[in-house]
Amino acid sequence: MVSTPNRSVVVGGGIVGLATAVAMAARGHPPIVLEAEDRLAAHQTGHNSGVIHSGLYYKPGSLKARMCRAGLKAMYQFCVEENVPHRRCGKLVVAITKDELPRLATLEERGRANGVNVRRLGPEEIKEREPETVGVAGLWVPETGIVNYSLVTEALARRLTRLGGEVRLGNRVLSIRRDGAAIVLQTTRGEVRASSLVNCAGLQCDRIARLAGVEPGIRIVPFRGEYYTLRPERADLVRGLIYPVPDPALPFLGVHFTRGIDDVVEAGPNAVLAFKREGYSRMDVSLRDMADLAFFPGFWRMARVQWRNGLAETLRSLSKARFLASLQKLIPALTEDDIAPGGSGVRAQAVGRDGRLIDDFHIQTAPGMVHVLNAPSPAATASLAIGKEIADRILGQRASASTARMHAPTRSVVGL
User: Fold this and answer.
1) 275 close to 224: Cβ distance less than 8 angstroms
2) Burial class (CB in 10 A: 0-12, 13-18, 19+), 365
3) 3-class DSSP assignment, residue 119
4) Cα–Cα–Cα angle for 79, 155, 22, rounded to 5 degrees
5) Which of 49, 355, 367, 22 is nearest to 197 (CA)?
6) What are phi and psi of 413, to 5 degrees?
7) From CA 45, how far away is CA 13, in angstroms rounded?
8) 8 Å CB contact between 270 and 319
9) 387, 198 in Cβ contact below 8 A?
10) Could you give phi then psi for residue 150, rounded to 5 degrees?
11) DSSP assignment, residue 367?
12) Which residues of 309-328 are buried (b: 16+ CB within 10 A; e: fewer)?
């Protein structure tokens, strides 16, 4: 048994979990981080394309917009402080046809409302930025950057340790119960008792919430994003980051090009239903995860609305030629020989019982607990800001409870 009665526990060793732990430790409450895998950043964080987003896409006033803007500045500062390699390369968003111009204008308005430094480009200016890209108009966002978020997470873990916190790997949470004022977590490596709980479990966040006795009202639906990479001898087709104008009806940005911090150029991703929450290939299947979806009415309501998009993404996943055709809309010079299958990642997409794809960050609070139930892109960019928000909530609860105990009436106990 591991007794930690006065310490909080953070479940999840991705970038949001570590950023939260560091924010708590910086305020004098260093927590224990429990990670199920044998390494940090094993899932969403470690399969991230590494973009430091500017806040261009998000509805003004939303958590995404606020936290992305704050997180952008904090991320650049953190990388400088911890010597994490990063690059401010800028991003180009391209309208390929005139039909996309109204959406491009809306995107520009959103960006400016969020405080993003954005500039409208014409066809010739697009060529100046990305000579192989074609489009009728574009947006240039110089604040956007690139980093390896696994390295950021490792740097956060080092900072946490310096501040008195602890990371425990290989601690998969099996059950959660209350024992008086304590929260007791049974893990694959024993029991952990804690004063409060923060759930940053990503692909498993809804299950952790239910183990803790909280009904989250959503279900995580895993979407696998598959990438191709440009062969090294053709990587010069892309200078930086090139994006299409996204479909406003979907929480995905469309297939795009990303020159990483290692100068490898990725192309993608698509977005297909994964048959396992940690399913990084078509052969990965979990009967439990599939049954979870089958018995969730929100999944079928979502499927009825999104089946055409789902079919198109699936066909593109199965056909290199279809994937290439999507990429050629941005870079016509690209050929089938220029691309090779790359990696993949799984997005933890929260879906409501009504079938709605939850777009904004979703954080739910319960007594002694905070549950992060939807943290898709730009969560990595915003992680330091999200961490501060969660620390405010969980430590605010602790302060309120402490104040309540201090002001509680004294009871006399007879017979001692």
Assistant:
1) no
2) middle
3) strand
4) 100
5) 367
6) -115, 120
7) 9
8) no
9) no
10) -65, -40
11) T
12) ebeebeebbeeeeebbebbe
Q: Which two tokens stand for residue 275?
A: 């048959």
Q: Where are the alpha helices (DSSP H) in 50-195?
A: 63-81, 101-113, 123-129, 149-162
Q: Token match 């800001």: residue?
A: 385
pLDDT, tens digit (0-9, with 9 covering 90-100), for 324-352:
999 999 999 999 999 999 999 999 999 99
Give the Cβ contact number of residue 48 at 10 Å: 23
Residue-by-residue DSSP string for 61-93: TSHHHHHHHHHHHHHHHHHHHTT--EE---EEE
Q: How many CA atoms lie within 13 A of 161 on its CB side?
A: 8
Calpha distance 100→130 (Å, rounded): 19
How confident is residue 399, by pLDDT bands cut at 50, 70 and 90?
low
- Residues 113 and 128: their CA atoms lie apart, in Å, by 27
First to last CA, the chain: 31
d(CA 163, CA 178): 28
Rounded distance between C-alpha atoms, residue 53 and residue 114, angstroms: 12
Q: With contact defined as beta carbons under 8 Å apart, do 210 and 216 qualify?
A: yes
Is residue 214 within 8 Å of residue 204, measured between CB atoms?
no
Q: Are 16 and 387 in contact (CB under 8 A)?
A: yes
Q: Answer yes or no: are the C-beta atoms of 74 and 59 closer than 8 Å.
A: no
Q: What are phi and psi of 133, to 5 degrees?
A: -95, 140
DSSP 357: B
Helix (H) or strand (E) holding 382: helix 379-406
Residues 21-45, mean pLDDT to the nearest whole number: 97
Instruction: Tell me the pLDDT band of 414, cut-offs 50, 70 and 90.
Output: very low
Instruction: Give the rounded distance of the alpha carbon of 321 from its chain centre.
Output: 29
- Answer for the pair 168, 35: CB distance below 8 angstroms, yes or no: yes
Q: Is the pLDDT of residue 407 over 50?
A: no
H or E stretch covering 242: strand 241-244
Contact between 49 and 225 under an 8 Å Cβ cutoff? The reply is no
Structure tokens at 346: 């799984």
310, containing H or E segment? helix 297-318
Separation of alpha carbons 357 and 61, rounded Å: 19
Tokens 């809804």, located at residue:
206
β-pair partners for 177: 184
